[in-house]
Write the structure tokens for this entry.
Amino acid sequence: MGHVHAGSGGPVAILYSQKCRTGFAQGKGKSLMAYENILVERLEGRVGLVRLNRPKALNALNAQLMRELADALHELDRDDAIGCLVLTGNDRAFAAGADIKEMAEASAIDMLNRDNIAQWDRLAALRKPLIAAVSGWCLGGGLELAMICDMIVASESARFGQPEITIGIMPGAGGTQRLTRAVGKAIAMEMILNNRNLSADEAARFGLVNRVVPPEIYLDETLKLAREIASRAPIAVRLAKEAINKAFENTLAEGIATERRNFYFLFATEDQKEGMAAFIAKRDPQWKGR
Ligand code: CAA
């Protein structure tokens, strides 16, 4: 154990954090949970940091990763020593979406029964503020994950998009609803229907992200913001977050339900099978419209 340096010039993890091949979340010596797909650190200034850690797959969000992420964030959410949460990936990718290889052969009924997107809902139920620190690819489910966070700090290198249409499906974890609310209907349509990606500066201009900073400091800047929020009155922060989300979500719920039904339905189409198979085989898809 002891001190752990996270990234160049990055934060110093104190107390119980430990970084090794697997991530460990340890709370006051009480619990020890090993994670395979994320790294968890408790940092000075009452900040809990979770890193997505499937670098070879550009942090593609498979079911196990999402379960681990929801478990770890909820453990930090319940910890009185933590005031604010930060979620990040690595310099190349925040996350390149839901894991296409895991979904490629799934039927609509498989998708309905697995209901993996329920893990995204668990993140939306966190009480403490959650800030995304985004560098590189932030696509599909990765962007939907970032948008569930309460704020987004972007590196200049960040690229935001909803490319699901290119593999024969549509966003299924809140994208059609949260992106539309964040950037407006016209830009959301272009991103979701025609795979338009946004640069970090465009994302800031359209109101998707809080600020854009140089790649070397995006995590430090996010942690600074998190420490400031963590220093504020905890109950007020919690209730204010809840109130903002209430205003935001009252009309969201129906949209999410519709979106999910439609997303799962797409797994009954031949184009979904073709789109995902083509991605994996690294060839162009042949659409049939059925
Ligand atoms: N799922 C599974 N594996 C993925 C992945 C994903 N979403 N994104 C990337 N990977 C894997 C690649 O298959 C590749 O693995 P191999 O080395 O085994 O071939 C590895 O990560 C590196 O990726 P690339 O070689 O493709 O890297 P690149 O730099 O050439 O391209 C990229 C980067 C443009 C992001 C490209 O990887 C890409 O287009 N990824 C898919 C993006 C996407 O379609 N996301 C939406 C997923 S569906 C979804 O998210 C549904 C939802 O709403 C819940």
Q: What stands out?
A: Confidence is low (pLDDT under 50) at residues 1-32.
